[in-house]
User: Fold this.
Amino acid sequence: MGILVVGSVALDSVETPFGKADNVLGGSATYFSTAASYFTDVSLVAVIGEDFPDEHINFLKEKGVDTNGLQKIAGKTFRWQGRYEYDLNEAHTIATHLNVFKKFKPHIPAVYTKSPYVFLANIDPEIQLNVLEQVKKPKFVACDTMNFWIEGKPDALKGLLSKVDLFVLNEGEAREFAKEPNLVKAAKKILAYGPKTVIIKRGEYGALMFNGGSIFSAPAYPLESVFDPTGAGDSFAGGLIGYLANIDNTNESNIRQAIIFGSVMASFNVEDFSLNRMRTLTLKEIYDRYRKFKQLTHFEDIS
Ligand code: AMP
Assistant:
């Protein structure tokens, strides 16, 4: 089954303790689409400015992403500038230049309005809501956000959550949004806004899923070399929703497997700057690492 994704396509400038990259390809929808493209068909709706290099569009096309919904308008592309300290779990935003985002009114092409799976990647929650109004009864809707919107548009975000099946956010954002330091209590508060499932990403500590009364905990893959955590969350979501759309079944046991595919995609993404690791990544590497995750968490029951 195909996925419609709406989110940011960006030019990022990122500094980590291991190096620096300026004006490189980034954006929530870019990372999501690329990761999900390994599992299913992806249609991307986003906005870029006149300065956006064609080579980036070609990269997405090579990954099989349908870019017909990528609108180029007058002005500059959205830019994000961030920095990471040795604690790579926390991104410090230095600057956010909304640029063409300010004028962005997404138009969902008619062929995409029937997409069974919809992912509303990190972007203004009012834009996320606007997209949901245009699609026709999708089977499964998931969304992401970040502190910028939690602080800037909390009410729009709460309105959105009453309309989605699954919400992914990172642990700092969950605490801030729920105004609750304990993650289990925070998840319960967030579930009360409407989503059936909440997944809290915890960077190098893995992810926690809250689904009704049940909780699932997945580790992150223990990597020796992490270069750039940018896009880990969106690659996680791409592997997660990509896998669910591929098997077209969103019961809890499949969501658990999907979380591992999400963790696999995030673990590859952080091995290099921007989307560079995705340029060479193969499906075989993805399946091999999935099996390593299985070994990593396997232990015998007590007899
Ligand atoms: P993450 O997966 O959370 O590391 O997301 C990283 C991507 O989010 C970067 O490539 C940024 O371009 C993008 N981003 C940063 N801030 C925003 C924002 N306020 N709205 C939408 N996208 C953003």
